[in-house]
Structures are given as C-alpha cells and as structure tokens.
Design goal:
- This protein has five helices and six strands.
- It is an alpha/beta fold.
- The strands form two sheets. The chain has a four-stranded parallel beta sheet, with helices on one face. The protein has a two-stranded antiparallel sheet with strand order 3-4.
- It is globular.
- The model has no long low-confidence stretch (mean pLDDT about 95).
C-alpha cells in the first residue's frame, strides 16, 4: 500500500479567524495547532505542510485557569553563564500578549523545519483589527 502524497500545487490553504476573547489558552492552542498542521484534512501527511492560515484576534483577552497567572513561569536563556531570565504568565501578558499564544502553539508543533514553516502561518493580533481582510477569512468556532 502506498502513502498518499498531495502535490504541492493541489494543496488548498484556507484562512480562519479565531477570537481569543475569554477562551482558555490551552484549549484554543490545541485547535490552532491542529489546523496549522492540517490534521483536520483527509489529505494529512506528517512529512508535508498542508495546513491552513490562522489569524488570532483579541490575544490580550486570553484566559488561564486556576493560579496559572502567577504560578506558570516561562524561562529563556541568553547562552551566557547565569543568563536565565524568568517571567510569569501575567508579566508576559502585560509585555507581549501575542507571545503567550505563540509559545503555547509552538510547543504543540513538530520541532523541525516543517514545524517552523507551520508557525509562520499563525498571525496574532491584540485588538479586533487585522490586515488580512483581502484573504476573506472564515470564522473559526472554538
């Protein structure tokens, strides 16, 4: 039995708008990662990027459950000795609300070239306006 391979010219990529207002971060990130990978399509191949474009609006109105606003800590390292920097979810939301969603979705994508290409199809905005009206995006109910 052969693996079905969709030719690149035949891949159909749709545009969707997801409203993050009042949504739980993990719940919306799972659906966004699923759409970016293309797992909702019958032509899904794990070695091919055939997912859709996702526009997330109202990223600054995302919700976390429990005490995660203060208990969830994001770390990054500069590469130098003692160069670790830590921020809570509340600090990340205050400084860069888009990064909260981007980091959650990035952790759910493959850690290779395909995952990086799929993450580029994610567009995140803090307000309700976005510059992608020409693509006529559909509303994504989550």
């Amino acid at each position: 039995m052969k693996t079905y391979y969709t030719p690149v010219k035949e891949i159909e990529r749709n545009w969707y708008v997801a409203d993050a207002d009042g949504k739980v971060l993990g719940r919306i990130a799972v659906e966004i990662a699923r759409r970016l990978r293309g797992k909702h399509k019958p032509t899904f191949c794990n070695f091919q990027d055939n997912g859709d474009f996702i526009i997330v609006v109202n990223a600054d109105k995302i919700h976390l459950t429990g005490n995660k606003w203060d208990d969830k800590v994001y770390h990054r390292h500069s590469g130098y000795p003692g160069g670790i920097t830590s921020q809570t979810a509340r600090e990340v939301l205050a400084k860069k609300p888009e990064e909260l969603i981007r980091m959650a979705v990035r952790g759910m994508l493959p850690k290779n070239k395909i995952g990086r290409a799929q993450l580029k199809k994610l567009k995140i905005y803090t307000g309700t306006d976005h510059p992608h009206q020409a693509q006529q995006p559909e509303l994504l109910e989550i």
